[in-house]
Write a structure and sequence with these properties.
By secondary structure, the protein is mainly alpha-helical. Helix content is about 80%, strand content about 0%. Helix 1 packs parallel to helix 7, helix 2 packs antiparallel against helix 3 and helix 3 packs across helix 6.
Length: about 200
């Protein structure tokens, strides 16, 4: 396997802007890094499972992807637009990270896992990386497990770095909450449009 090409492909696709990273930054800003780790772990676990499924069922996935593509795109676009709306209409008092009884962050892990399966960028990335870099060079289940674990760790690192950015600038962004929310909403809309136009 051309290892340098593989690593460049993985890191560029993982660390560039997309639904996972936008949400990680937004949650990092809203809840702080400590609470957002749940979401980041969910992203890592979700992508590990997605990559593992792509490894084991790649031939099947390639055949059914044209059937799944339209519903997957509709779900992904709808979810991105929903996130844009929620971000744009969120109130300043929802961002009090010192409030210990905020229950809206309890499902961040589950949200991070499930996002991987309605995120067309993630699904196509999983199928592409497996079909291009794994299946032609490896045929053991153990190697699929190891590479899927690696991809999950990279997903975790990526979402953690974006949430760290959001949490670092939390105090600064409190002063500019409305412009920040508008920018994040525009980025979510951009993600939705890029899903449609790709």
């Amino acid at each position: 396997m051309p290892m340098l090409s593989f690593l460049l492909f993985v890191f560029v696709n993982s660390f560039t802007p997309g639904p996972n990273n936008f949400m990680a930054m937004s949650f990092g800003n809203k809840y702080g890094l400590k609470k957002t780790i749940k979401f980041c772990l969910g992203v890592g676990v979700g992508f590990f499972v997605l990559a593992l499924l792509c490894s084991f069922f790649n031939a099947v996935l390639i055949n059914i992807l044209p059937i799944m593509e339209i519903p997957l795109n509709i779900l992904g676009v709808g979810y991105m637009l929903y996130l844009a709306f929620k971000t744009l209409t969120s109130k300043d008092n929802n961002y009090n990270v010192n409030d210990g009884n905020d229950s809206s962050d309890n499902n961040l892990f589950v949200m991070g896992v499930l996002l991987q399966f309605i995120n067309p960028k993630g699904v196509l990335y999983g199928i592409t990386v497996v079909a291009t870099f794994l299946l032609p060079y490896y045929n053991s289940y153990f190697s699929y497990l190891i590479f899927s674990l690696f991809l999950g760790v990279v997903g975790l690192m990526s979402s953690c770095s974006w949430s760290l950015f959001g949490s670092i600038f939390q105090k600064v962004l409190v002063q500019y909450r409305k412009p920040f929310n508008i920018i994040m909403a525009v980025l979510f809309v951009y993600s939705a449009i890029s899903i449609v136009l790709r």
